[in-house]
Every structure is written in structure tokens, then in C-alpha cells.
Amino acid sequence: xxxxxxxxxxxxxxxxxxxxxxxxxxxxxxxxxxxxxxxxxxxxxxxxxxxxxxxxxxxxxxxxxxxxxxxxxxxxxxxxxxxxxxxxxxxxxxxxxxxxxxxxxxxxxxxxxxxxxxxxxxxxxxxxxxxxxxxxxxxxxxxxxxxxxxxxxxxxxxxxxxxxxxxxxxxxxxxxxxxxxxxxxxxxxxxxxxxxxxxxxxxxxxxxxxxxxxxxxxxxxxxxxxxxxxxxxxxxxxxxx
Length: 241
Description:
Blueprint: H1 5-20, E1 27-29, H2 36-43, E2 48-52, H3 69-73, E3 78-81, H4 84-90, H5 94-106, E4 110-115, H6 119-123, H7 127-139, E5 151-154, H8 168-187, H9 189-194, E6 196-200, H10 208-212, E7 219-221, H11 229-240
Parallel strand pairs: 1-2, 2-3, 3-4, 4-5, 5-6, 6-7
């Protein structure tokens, strides 16, 4: 929840020129709902994608304050679903994540589905239990034919906005031993290998290359660093390398 529409327009204007010059990686910006229309206009004709930070699973109705998938799809190709802050502060569950993924697929959106454990569960060695459950419950019954348009983001809650990033070894281990096997079980081995899995949690220009160097990590879900033009550009350039 950062930037007014005017501030978002200014940030994206400053970012878009250097981002357009970076080839070979997929780039997506996800501003708050009020800025989607303005940012969409700025990104028109570029190779920079646009995503929303959330959506509701119903097509329409008496859900005051919510935004439906088809409304998002008017401007966006992507939507973040199940971010840890949505789970922590707004009561989102694995069940609601599953409903949203299905609705996003129906609206021809690419869902970026977030999974990850809290510090308490991490220290209790419950990472495997939590991530496996979130993956199964959040994705079961979704359209396997659309798996190629699915993106998973592993974001350990204890690393988000804390400056305490997961090590690259730990992050890759979770992807290899937990996330990919569940994807293989649900969608088949070929699809599991093709689905992009991102790491999110205190990603900066200083540590991004460590994650990108790992073959199981396909990119990053960037938080605070995306509000700083030079920082985000450097992270994107690290992905190219």
C-alpha cells in the first residue's frame, strides 16, 4: 500500500525507460488498484507486464470493497494471490486462495500464488508441513491445462520486510524438495519443471544475484526494493546476468 496515483505514475515513468532496455527477462509491475489504469497507459506498447495485488473470486455481486477478476483483466495480465500479508492481516485461507486461482484462470489471468511459513513455524521445523499444505490446498482442482501460466512465489513470512532474507541454499531447497514435487503431483513432471517459481522476502540489489544463480529459482517477487528505481533496475539486470 504505497504511492498515490501521481506518485505511481512518476515512479513508473522513471522506471520504464531503463526497464524497456533490459531484454531477456520478464518484468511485471503490480501497483495498488487505484493506479492500475494510469500505469497501464504508461506501459502500453512496452514489454513490461502489469499485475494487481489481489482480487475476489466472485464474478460480481454484493461484495463491497472487492474487485473481481474480470475487472482486473481489463488492464492486467497478472494477479498476486495469497500474499502473506493478505493471509496474516485479512484472514485469507488456503481455501480462498484456491477459489481465487480458479477465478483468475477463468479470466485468463496469470496467478502469482504465494506460499511460505511464519518465523514461529520456521523455528519449529514446520516449513515442509506448511508449504506442502498451502501448495496442495491452494492449487488442487485448478485447471492443469493452464499450469504453464501459473507462477509460484516462495516468500517465507519471517523474511518479508525484515531485512532477514532466506539464504539462497534454503530457498532453493524449499523449491526443489517441496514446491516442485507438489507441482509434479498435481500437474505432471513436465509442467512442474516449466512452472516459474520466484523467491520473495527482503530481495535487494545486493543479494538478488545469489537467488538468480540457483537453477530452481526463476525470479523474484520484489517488495520494498521495487519502490526505488535504481534498486529495482539493478535487480532486473542481475536476473539477466
